[in-house]
Amino acid sequence: MKVFVARQAIFNRKKQVVAYELLFRDGVKNSFPNIADDAATAKLIMNNQLNLGMRYLTSGKKALINIGPDSLRQELCEFLPANDVILELLETIPPTKQNYERIRGLFHSNFRLALDDFEYSKEWEPFLKLVRLIKFDVMENPLDTIVPVIDMIKERKNIKLLAEKVETEEEFEQAKKMGFQFFQGYFFAKPKMIEQKDITINYVIVMLIYEEALKPNMSITRLAELFAQDTALAYKLLRLINSGVFPIKSRIESLKQALVYLGNERVKKFVNLIMTAHVAEGKPTELTRLSIVRSRFCELIAQQISPGLANMSFMTGLFSLLDAILDRPMEQVVNKLPFPEQLHDALIGKPNTLYYILNIVRAYESGSWWTLQNACSYLNYKDENLPDFHAAAINWADMYKNRVY
Q1: What per-residue string of b and e applies to 279-308 under the rule 16 or more CB within 10 Å gives b?
Q2: Would you say the C-alpha torsion 328, 331, 337, 342 has a positive or negative sign?
């Protein structure tokens, strides 16, 4: 499937681009989507941070990400890299004590914070010690009307000022004289649409994962089995592990290992992120279904040839079609995933046991007897069990096909 994001440049006083605001879009039309702020933020994270990453979209510059009250409460920021983003706290967040504690937690987690469409009141005073940037909408609040507030903020050396919706050269020059350091608006550049390929997520599997995550005694083993039923979700999970948000101490060889690494609380937050972003997505494509069949097929063969490789063989099959699904070279895709060298090499076509197992599966799918015999010969493997293994893999992949949540 295709996913969309708009980026709008932010300029300094010399009209140099210093950052980009990223805005979720639900289609090629470059306009605000009709969804809640928290859903837009969740989709931005799922479709972009857990796809190519924010740095790709911003060419290495800082990304401003909108955070509404629900996103703040759900702790969606935990899935963003603090070094790459500035959290733009929307004006819909009320200055309550509870929100102050949440924002203070983000500050102490090294996030840079901005206030959007700011209108001063004394309740915001504690928050001003935590933020580093304040945005003023100069269309809603003309520059002449906010001089007293600007003069007050300029006394705080920790805060920079950004004028947004700057439409003319005159507004730019006036804002500069008033002390604004950064600028955004159609005078400089309209938001630019960026289109990417992503994987469609299976709504039924999402709901089953959510069901498991809600249980008092959530089973990581069961969750790993469910993530394994959907290539897209498995990919997002592993991209999260390798996204720069969490330090990696060892290579990930299975989905269960990835979930254990995150820990129960983070897993529940990740499931909530998935639910918020994809609660109404469609069914998996044929390519994702085929990759799920392959994963089980590869695993069954590995259990006979080399049981110690069964987990990695499963992963080899599961991710063997990512290049076709994402329409990108396989090497580019797997370099963004935290795979052991043996699994990485198999997926990019370097010969090893996992690679040869995958070739057996591919040959069986093609229906070519000669190709199958040649593939089996590399591992000295007899093909007599392959029909049963293939049938078992199809049944396994179809396990939840007709289940209604």
Answers
A1: eebeebbebbbbbbbbbbbbbbbbeebeee
A2: positive
Cα 221 to chain centroid distance, Å, stands at 23
Cβ proximity of 51 and 89 under 8 Å? no
The 3-class SS string of 97-161 reads HHHHHHHHHHHHCCCEEEECCCCCCHHHCHHHHCCCEEEEECCCCCHHHCHHHHHHHHCCCCCEE
DSSP assigned state of 202: -
Q: Which of 181, 230, 173, 235 is nearest to 206 (CA)?
A: 230
Give how far the C-alpha of residue 267 lies from the chain's centroid of Cα atoms, to the nearest Å: 14
Which one, of 239, 79, 233, 216, lies nearest residue 224 by Cα? 233
Contact 371, 279 (CB under 8 A): no
Extract the tokens encoding 325.
């699904």
**How far is the C-alpha of 383 from the C-alpha of 387, rounded, in Å?**
8
pTM over 0.90: no
Please, is 228 exposed, middle or buried when counting C-beta atoms within 10 Å of its C-beta (0-12, 13-18, 19+)?
buried
Residue 199: Cβ within 10 Å count? 24
Nearest-angstrom CA–CA distance, 195 and 47: 10
Say if CB 323 and CB 349 are below 8 A apart: no
Rg from Cα positions in the chain? 25
pLDDT in 10s for each residue of the chain, 405 residues? 676 788 899 999 999 999 999 988 765 454 445 455 677 888 888 877 887 778 888 888 999 999 999 899 989 899 999 999 999 999 999 999 999 999 999 999 999 999 998 888 899 999 999 999 999 999 999 999 999 999 999 999 899 999 999 999 999 999 999 999 999 998 887 777 777 777 778 766 886 788 788 787 899 999 999 999 888 899 999 988 887 788 777 888 899 999 999 999 999 989 888 877 865 344 345 777 788 899 999 999 999 999 999 989 988 998 898 888 777 899 988 887 778 899 999 999 999 999 999 999 999 998 888 999 999 999 999 989 999 999 999 988 776 444 322
